[in-house]
């Protein structure tokens, strides 16, 4: 069973959005040192229910909010998405030191991400 493990917020003005969520909800942001402009979001105490997320720049054709699911085998999960009427809208790609990520669309058009943990990805 795949669980939501991460959410993403996309914005044309990340600095404004960081300030908003820090002040309005008390979230904490830290700049990711990876190859793209991205911030990691801590939404609270890891010992309490909830998930953390990320903030990136708005990508044309993608919604402003996306949920990402944990999968054990991304290739198999992508095959099932296609088999049951969904489609892959962003092919499998390495997130260096984190894992493999792809974005899909369900039959109603909702976009979601799938991540396979692999610290050696992209290395």
Give the spatial strand order of the biggest sheet. Answer: 2-3-4-1-5-8-7-6
CATH topology descriptor: 2,3-Dihydroxybiphenyl 1,2-Dioxygenase, domain 1
Helix content: 10-25%
Question: Which CATH first-tier class would you pick?
Answer: Alpha Beta
- β content, as a range? 35-45%
Radius of gyration: 15 Å
Cα separation of the termini: 28 Å
The average pLDDT is 93
CATH homologous superfamily caption:
2,3-Dihydroxybiphenyl 1,2-Dioxygenase, domain 1
Shape: globular
Looking at the overall shape, the CATH architecture is Roll
Largest sheet: 8 strands, mixed
Query: What structural class do helix, strand and pairing data support?
Result: alpha+beta
Report the strand count: 8
* Quaternary: single chain
Low-confidence stretches: none
Structural account:
It is a single chain. The chain has 123 residues and is α+β, with helices and mostly antiparallel strands. It has one domain (4-117): 2,3-Dihydroxybiphenyl 1,2-Dioxygenase, domain 1 (Roll). 18% of the residues lie in helices and 41% in strands. The protein has helices at 14-25, 74-83, and strands at residues 4-11, 28-31, 38-42, 53-57, 65-70, 87-95, 99-105, 111-117. Strands 2-3-4-1-5-8-7-6 form an eight-stranded mixed beta sheet, with helices on one face. It is globular, with a radius of gyration of 15 Å.
């Amino acid at each position: 069973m795949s669980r939501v493990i991460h959410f993403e917020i996309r914005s044309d003005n990340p600095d404004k959005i960081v300030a908003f969520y820090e002040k309005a909800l008390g979230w904490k942001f830290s700049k990711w040192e990876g190859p793209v402009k991205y911030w990691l979001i801590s939404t609270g105490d890891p010992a309490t229910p909830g998930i953390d997320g990320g903030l990136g720049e708005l990508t044309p054709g993608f919604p402003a909010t996306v949920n990402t699911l944990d999968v054990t085998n991304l290739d198999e999960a992508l095959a099932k998405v296609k088999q049951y009427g969904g489609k892959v809208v962003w092919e499998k790609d390495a997130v260096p030191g984190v894992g493999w990520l792809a974005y899909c669309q369900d039959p109603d058009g909702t976009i979601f991400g799938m991540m396979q943990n692999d610290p050696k990805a992209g290395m």
